[in-house]
Amino acid sequence: MFAEVDAATLSAWLVDDDELALLDAREQGAYFHSHLFHAACVPLSQLELVLDQLVPRRDVRIVWCDDGSGLAERAAVKATEQGWTNNHVLMGGTAAWSNAGGELYAGINVPSKAFGEYVEHAFDTPRIPAAELNALLEAGENLVVLDSRPMPEYHNMSIPTGIDCPGAELVYRVKEVVDDPATTVVVNCAGRTRSIIGAQSLINAGLPNRVVALENGTMGWELAGLTVERGQTMHAPDPSSAVNAWSTEAARMVGERFGVRSVSIDELEQWRADPTRSTYLLDVRTPEEFEAGHLEGSISAPGGQLVQATDEYVATMRARLVLIDDNRVRATMTASWLRQLGWNDAVVLDVDVTSAHALPTSAGRTPRPAVPTVPTTTVSDLAKRFDQNIPPVVLDLGSSAKFRRRGHIPGAWWGVRSRLAEARAALGEVGDLVLTSSDGQVAKLAVPEAQALWPEATITALAGGNKSWRHADHLMSVEDAEEHLTTTTDDVWYKPYDHDEQVVAQHMRDYLTWEIALVDKIRRDPTVTFPVFE
Q1: What average pLDDT does the segment 316-341 reach?
Q2: Do residues 67 and 127 share a domain?
Q3: How confident is the model at residue 416 (pLDDT cuts 50, 70, 90)?
Q4: Using CA atoms in the order 124, 126, 130, 133, what is the torsion angle rounded to 10 degrees?
Q5: What is the DSSP string of 51-70?
Q6: 219 is in which domain, residue-wise?
Q7: At a CB cut-off of 8 Å and minimum separation 6, what does 286 contact?
Q8: Does residue 192 contact residue 516 with C-beta atoms inside 8 Å?
Q9: Calpha distance 165→198 (Å, rounded)
Q10: How many helices (H) does the chain have, and how many strands (E)?
Q11: What is the tally of structural domains in the chain?
Q12: Are 342 and 208 in contact (CB under 8 A)?
């Protein structure tokens, strides 16, 4: 059901002209510690839910890898069963790659993070230390702080006086916030990448103001002993017609500089009908705009996040990326960065998606892939059994971070779908087992696999998962979390802020050190190159 490839073959494939999806089948937390630069994380436990979006062409070359644990082989078989026909496995995994002289990387979203560091070096993007910014704020200097993260991150913590304006929105909205050329514009994020890309976007667009990136973002601010604000909701306003005129012309000039081209709807349809190439439709507007109406077949990929975490949206190297918005400002700015990242076929759809009445559009979020029909238990039935003191064994296959910090169904155990054998060893024989997960999808996928391990048991999935349990106002427990783990909690990457308060500062320092060091590391990697533009 798959072929094996050695490190030399994969190395050649990474730099040839054909499409390639390099996928790591481990859980995100395990992947975080050591992986190939170009490998997108597609955990075996999530495969059916994410592979169609990440790798839409079913006959594209796929190479699965892991650390020699056997997950790559299992993922290749599963992908073949799901309809992907060109699966390969890297022989010997990451160890063989390293032994052959290949570089391995720690971290998440490594290509985008490394690119951010490269941009700072290549453009000499101006930056301001936290202490200097704080002094300017206290002195009442003429400046504006623009936070380039999505609203939930900004709402959680922000720099005092900061206004939320996510990456691709900066050029689109900045003139609505800053009308004085003498105003200093400071762009910040949590760490470094979005600050650097955001500040350089405004500079590339020709904003006449002094523009600087906040060095090390909110992490640098807190490490300097300064206090962040919480719960803020200030967002940069929608642009007026005059601001639209400026941003349209600014984006046009940026597009010319970086070779961004537009495609018509007819050309798009030709691309989508081409079975030899992968075409992604990426709507770079805000999630709210996307949900109000979007082109059928497109996915929500807000421009700043798409540049910051490209591998979470697109896993096929050398694919065609068609960016969609309403007036091409956000799409052009995003495409300019994607082209510098190496996506040569990042283009802009020459259509205003909000007024293209002849195009098939739909509202709401992109639906998740359907899962097989399996026996389920309703929230009310499960709650009744708790009330009657005859609860079943509950196995939570959702995020370990949420299980430990946000709570779980009382008495529930935690596990990973791809490690159900470990859960079987921890739980032993059970007569009645209810599987749950964040929204119940992973739990449904796991029912037949669990049934094979507990053939005599009654096994069901909780309909709607933990979200339904929580929304019904049933108790969520954080007690006994550590005692009820069936496997290692390396399913997710724990961000610096996710750690206990006494070690957060050290994790922030470690993260920033890692990020800064990436630019030197990629210089040693012959599989990593970024195009150079005048």
Answers
A1: 97
A2: no
A3: very high
A4: 170
A5: HHHH---TTSEEEEE-SSSS
A6: 115-252
A7: 166, 169, 302
A8: yes
A9: 10
A10: 22, 22
A11: 4
A12: no
